[in-house]
Amino acid sequence: MSPAGMLRGDFSLRLFNVTPQDEQKFHCLVLSQSLGFQEVLSVEVTLHVAANFSVPVVSAPHSPSQDELTFTCTSINGYPRPNVYWINKTDNSLLDQALQNDTVFLNMRGLYDVVSVLRIARTPSVNIGCCIENVLLQQNLTVGSQTGNDIGERDKITENPVSTGEKNAATWSILAVLCLLVVVAVAIGWVCRDRCLQHSYAGAWAVSPETELTGHV
Fold it and tell me: What is the pLDDT of residue 188?
């Protein structure tokens, strides 16, 4: 409380570093000294403590079985205890809460952390969202997660990326060697052809003069 403020009739109580333990009732009682400390004001105030939850993090879906998809939603450091909803973002309808398993607990700071696990039937395309609601702050934090037809294919592709890279490298190496062999073969063919033509041409000139000289004699 501020002594200077009280002289002006301001009896405000200011709390610093508020924690959930400060959530209680406070009683303000004002007495008048000039009236023999008679009570002139009595007010009871209830303090409600609230803290924003972090933006939810929705993990990529995984398939514990061929017929099921599992999503996990996590949010931390909020107060009071939240409500958790899973939403079908295609039509903004709420999913059955029987499909989700929520774990809400107090952390070392006295704030709430929440982990929600959703299990649904596997479909070709899923577009859902996780909503964390703080009723006291009228706060709704929603994050979506979308899957497509490539879930199974993506798992197969990333299952052994090293082997795939090695296979691609080997394939390109073989193609490069084959191309080089073709180039060398073509070059050798042209060289041999030129040499053969040169030898035939030189022989004809060597024989022709001798024949002419013999004819003149």
Answer: 55
